[in-house]
Amino acid sequence: MPEHVRTDRRGRLATIELHRPEALNALTHDMVRGIAAALAAAQRDPAVGTIAITGAGERGLCAGGDVVGLRADVTATGGSAARAFWRDEYALNAAIARSSTPVVAIQHGIVLGGGVGISAHARHRVVTESTRIGFPEVTIGFVPDVGATWLLTRAPGELGTRVALTGEHVGTADAILLGLSDAFVPEERIPELLAALETTDADAAIAAVATRPPTGELAAARALVDDAFAGDDLRTILERLAAAGEPGAALAATIATRSPTALTVTLAALRRAAALPTLEQALEQEYRVSSHVSLLPDFAEGIRAQLVDKDRSPSWQPATIEQVPDAMVEACFAPAPDGDLALPEEAA
């Protein structure tokens, strides 16, 4: 196993722990490969009844992919290593989803981007009171990936569109409402749950410790969201939000700070993913989009502003959604530079 992935076997439970707490367990390519190898090994072991995915430290399961490293590759070499990372990451997301051995993901603390990809496709997704889940990609000039377009287009109404375009993080109850999570277990009882999984099947072990989650926020705004975020035109969505008073105007103001290119491509990707029949096909579309969007100016600039220089003042190109050419958006769905991703769909 690579340095930042740790595995264990206790009874019928195999555990895969992301162990890079100093970086909020952000995923490197080596970590993705290590998780995939550990998952495959556990699936082959007839004594394993459940696989648990956890993150080291108190701050969170995983803050996403190591995008600073991806930016360095894109700016230095044109992104071949970044595309190799996404190929393996998306294959891992699909493998978790189709695992015949039940996977339990403990979504404690911060769970963003790639962290959602290694957890929300699991058969059992467990949140705690500290959970904050989100897809912040539009804040760094990127697009929701790791199966996000599949997950968010299966959320109730237009709640998934809202989450994708705002880049906001949601808590426990809202993660369950969106379909990114299943059950709430108080953080103090997670060790008890993991211990129970050593001898008990996942359904029974989770049911024994799960309880009602704290109240969420998204359900109360459902009518506004379903009306304002409908359709394929981003300008119309922003106009509806601005005309709706608070909290619509606040949502419009938030979206207006995000990358115009990323926003426009994200909305197009969501609408196309809604018509796709499988997660694998959504991931294959996301690979095309990620490959192309990462080569556009806003990817390097957004990561610079948020995570490198940390001035939080990106200079987006183009600067407004009106200036984003339709041809640029359409080009993001063309075949990827190194060839397309093709994923098997059978269970492992």
TrEMBL record:
Q: Which residues form the Enoyl-CoA hydratase/isomerase domain?
A: 14-333
Q: Which reaction does it catalyse?
A: 3-hydroxy-2-methylpropanoyl-CoA + H2O = 3-hydroxy-2-methylpropanoate + CoA + H(+)
- Keywords, A to Z? Hydrolase
Tell me the InterPro entries matching this sequence: ClpP/crotonase-like_dom_sf (IPR029045), ECH_dom (IPR045004), HIBYL-CoA-H (IPR032259)
Q: Under the cellular component aspect of Gene Ontology, which terms does the record hold?
A: cytosol
- EC number of this enzyme: 3.1.2.4
Gene Ontology terms for molecular function:
3-hydroxyisobutyryl-CoA hydrolase activity
The name this protein goes by in its record:
3-hydroxyisobutyryl-CoA hydrolase
Q: Native species of this protein?
A: Agrococcus jenensis
